Amino acid sequence: MPTESLLSEFPPVSTEQWERIIRENVKGAEYASRMIWHPEEGLAVKPYYRAEDLAGLQFMDATPGDFPYVRTARATADWRIREELDIADPEEANRAAGSAIAAGAEEVAFHRPRLDSSSDIALLLANLNEIPVHCAGLGRASVELLIERLKKRPHGAAVSTDLDSLADLDHSAEIVRNAPTGLRPFVIHADEFQERAAGAIEEVGFALSAGVDLVAAMQERGLGIDRVAGSLSFSFATGPEFFVQIAKLRAFRVVWAKAVESFDGTHPAGVTQIHARTANWNKTIYDPHVNILRATTEVISAILGGADSVSCAPFDECYKHPDENSRRLARNTQIVLKQEALLSRVADPLGGAYVIEVLTNSIASKAWKLFQELEASGGYQEARAAGVIASVLDRRRSSREQAVDFRRRVLTGTNRFADASEKALGRIDQALISSVPRAAKAFEVLRLRTEQFIRRTGNQPRILLAEIGDVKMRSARSQFAADFLACAGLPTTIRQFKEAEQIVDSGAALIVLCSSDAEYLPIVEKLIPVLKDRSAGANIVIAGNPDTAEQLRNLGVADFIHVRSNAVEVLTGIQRLIGIRD
pTM surpassing 0.90? Predict the structure, then answer.
């Protein structure tokens, strides 16, 4: 059947018609709150997009390889699988690199290798001429040794280091002058902004501002834009907001290419090198295999966003030193996506998708505006020295932590859908879990406190979820309370009762009443006197937030569990009620 004939059965529907139907079902202010997603301040994602939303987007006609490289500078979506190795001894690190390459890695990052001499560098790079290599954590002397060694290497794959280009601008200029072709000595760590809760707009804007500060400083020292741009790469972390993370990398390529052009750089100089790594802040020590799922979506975001190389962190990295099995699993995540899912075949596979193109444009334009504001106030270094950057990041981190504490931002297996019986004490490195900021830490402190109490006393606190009254409400609230308490490692027992007095004989240390709001006051008025008569020491908590909360507290109710609770504060209080303390 011809396409025209098939489509003729479906008359066109205008945007006005769509909007009218939606607003007939979603009234007034509810439209914005229920239908428009705000992944971060400054971004709004509509419930649907149409071709008209792409009108005016300047880069829509660009193809892969075209300036401003929104669709990357490559003909395919292929990326390099980066293996990270934290081994000081250069010979041992080289052997580990060889094993990783044999197992599918395509790029190696050595973290803090010990390079005290030219021979150490020779050992580290042996048999790696065709493999891109990144060296992180090197001191100045080691970088200078590396430069001299690479000058003697006639050819080979690209090498990079992560020197802080803004720490000593005169030294950075000297490095650029001496660096051989193929060496990128500087990395701007936009990943640090993501880990400290920055949104995509801020990540792109701050990274752009830092890069422009370097270019301007190097030009003042007589270095050309093309050479400076070729000495620089950018590292981003990809977090859980799937579409936003994809658009973020696309947007950064656009604004960086435009910035290089504004310095009279050639279009090829505007091609940026982006490394992406799965985020650390959202990984958890409980239900840790969920980290594999998180990392998979984050790797896919990096791939679809057009990262040049990608690192997938081992799922157990947040609580112990990864073993070979977890490292292999992380590596194979990317290999499966490349070799089996075939995500490397097509450049910019989401190109033309309305939401991706609109998000890309929105992030790019708002990040450019942020960059201009920083420039007007003196640039990135001035803003950092004045505490402006830190102030923004601290505010964002506080907001993110609050969203986790109130369970508005879900960490599966930690602040929602937790397994109360799971134990972690025997498999974690306490020093390691304290060293990296993560959003789950407050809940993990609760869980570990419960574990330590049980290990120390041999007692499992008895918590009863007492279902009574309204059938529908009691069941819903007992399920909610069970999930809530499991986030502190507190298992519960659910029982149904017909009369309040029957609950007294449960022998529980904590009784959570699960009923309807209207029934709580009469239930508690009957229950509390009986508890006192029998000298039962149980504490009473209500599943809900009834209008009678003040009266219930006066009668002796200890606390309330509901969707607007600060879960960390409430669970900490409940632990104290039943004797669980550090």
Answer: yes
